[in-house]
């Protein structure tokens, strides 16, 4: 069945870890092998493993079967036709490989491997070979690549057949119908009902404009201590910049698992099947309307918030709607804005969060509001950093930052005193003044800024700048866009 040329609403991406190369003389496409033995064959409890895929012999994809974007057979359907696996349109005339909802008008993509790979041409081919390999060939003249790495398993473990099951799981089986590999073991930015996020597993967001970016900025990690954590990825896999957590970090050793149920409820279980937390109940989410066929998915979106979505499959005009979300404040995710920028969001308008550069700065990439901000091209030379009447302090109200002060002054009872303290210190570029009347001095860059909403506190940010004219005074600061600069410290 050919994939309709539609705009997919959601693109996702595979997270994988490195593995040793196979001893075979063919290359690996990149989806890495993993211990995907189903629950019935593991020595641990049911809640610390993945259920066996539900499939029947009548929907086997046999050896010798193939897919190609240029043929009428570009995808394989699940038994009910709900999901499809195969090639879909991507980019300008190219194609990607993935799994998507095929039975609803919004053909939402839920899984794809190797998003760092460029789109394939119309001459690409996926094939289950007669000797039990699942290979990708980019063109007729290119070498064969293993689409899934077999981990050097013995000959008797070769693939015998495959299936895309109605849960949205693409599975490779051996001759004994044991699972050799399944897409559910490699979640992307989406978790489907009956798919589990095991201890140590994570999903990640995808760039809004670059769907092939391999490193999602935002991650959802099921930690080994039982805590479910959202964090901003700095490229080093660090979770120190977390901005949401389930608060279940006392379950170390109990192998806590996250699962989305068929009725839309989002649960956390331990290895004994005991409920650790029902996340959906915290906001009243979950529950299938009587008489409707409702589909659900959990997705970490490119705004850094993970949500449970639902859609009425019986209504062809229905659209995905939010049932539950980890935060209603779109400025909560750390890293939504770049360095020297801050986030604003008005809940009543229900619009995307907006990033703003501090005065005198512009976005490095003006097409990406999430990019860092740097000094405006119209800025002036700072000259010597001395208090000579050529400097002033601009003020931002109700902006919170990740504080990185090098000095805290507790004896500054007024805003003016805090400003004067920064102007008198040649190392000071930023002064943060709080309701406790403490004055925190720090250098650039400012990071993880957001405007506070519905709060009685009034944090103030003073930014040190220099005037173009020595006649400018603190009482009459210049227009920032025409004449403002500060000294950048590159991190």
Quick structural overview:
The protein has 491 residues and is mostly beta strands. The protein has one helix spanning 415-423, and strands at 27-31, 61-62, 66-67, 75-77, 83-90, 94-101, 109-111, 125-128, 134-137, 145-148, 161-164, 170-173, 179-182, 190-191, 196-197, 202-204, 218-222, 228-232, 242-245, 257-260, 266-269, 275-278, 294-300, 306-312, 321-325, 341-344, 354-357, 361-363, 373-375, 391-397, 399-400, 407-409, 430-433, 439-442, 449-451, 460-466.
Give the N-terminus to C-terminus distance in angstroms: 51 Å
Given as residue ranges, the uncertain stretches (5+ residues, pLDDT < 50) are 1-37, 40-44, 150-155, 209-214, 379-388, 468-491
Rounded radius of gyration (Å): 27 Å
Largest pleated sheet: 5 strands, mixed
How is the CATH topology of the largest domain named?
Answer: Agglutinin, subunit A
Kindly state the number of beta strands: 36
Shape: elongated
- CATH architect. name of the largest domain: Orthogonal Prism
Strand content: 25-35%
Mean pLDDT: 76
Counting H and I runs of at least 4 residues, what is the number of helices?
1
Count of domains: 3
Global structural class: mainly beta
- The percentage helix is under 10%
Kindly report the spatial arrangement of strands forming the biggest sheet: 1-10-9-8-3
CATH superfamily of the largest domain: Bulb-type lectin domain
